[in-house]
Design brief:
There is one protein chain. By secondary structure, this protein is α/β, with parallel strands linked by helices. The protein has 2 domains: 2-105 and 214-234, Rossmann fold, CATH 3.40.50.12500; 106-209, Rossmann fold (3-Layer(aba) Sandwich). Helix content is 41%, strand content 14%. The protein is built from 8 helices and 8 strands, in the order βαβαβαβαβαβαβαβα. The chain has a 4-stranded parallel sheet, with helices on both faces. A 4-stranded parallel sheet has the order 6-5-7-8, sandwiched between helices. Helix 1 packs across helix 8 (210-223) and helix 4 packs across helix 8 (210-223). The chain is globular and about 50 Å long. The chain starts with a strand and ends in a 17-residue tail after the last helix. Pfam families: Asp_Glu_race. Belongs to the HyuE racemase family. It comes from Azospirillum oleiclasticum. InterPro entries: Asp/Glu/hydantoin_racemase, Hydantoin_racemase-like, Iso_Racemase_Enz_sf.
Length: 240
Amino acid sequence: MRILVVNPNSTASMTAKIGRAAQLVAAPGTEILAVNPPDTPASIEGYVDEALCLPGLLATIDRYAGPGAGGPGVHGDVAGTVIACFDDPGLDAARALTAKPVVGVCEAAVRMATLVAGRFSIVTTTSRSVPAIEHLAQRYGVAGRCRVRAAAVPVLALEEPGSDARRRVGAEIARALEEDGAEAIVLGCAGMADLARDYTAEFGVPVIDGVTAAVKLVEGLAALGLTTAKRGGYAFPAPK
């Protein structure tokens, strides 16, 4: 089984890190194909970046997982796709482009959190990201069970050796546990994909990363033979 993991931003080091985290949890025989569009913002921080990333993101998914995929150098046999940005950009459009399952990391993470905790907090990077994630919490039906918090960490600081990003995210997790009554933590950025295990050990609560959660969901959907519905809103786009 091959799973396509698309980082919608153009920072290759983050894509590589996301790919490593995904491969670590993948089942034996599952190959992770981690890619990013070359012409998107270096990080997705807010509504403008999210909008700017969409053409490249959707073109990449169509190339690797769309119904016409399979040309030279293109892997048309992917079992499903993970959109590795916590804003879940373009999720509905991506589901219309392919019959293979498409899972966003925010949706994956919060649904996993509801299975292991009553209340949880989402710790994201900057305050600019909080409203978008709050909207997603409403969409996914978990707004009454979680609080969204920002650690005041620019996304690209997670890629900088020697930055204090990990410490600041950890400090925000500590505040969430103390102030929110959180029973679990969701990491609200795909760039934190390598931190979940360390924070779980440090704080003694479930800490959920959306990238790895999404990989396991795609594996499960593929194993069950479930594909994306092609009636209604997720029908393939009409020729124009």
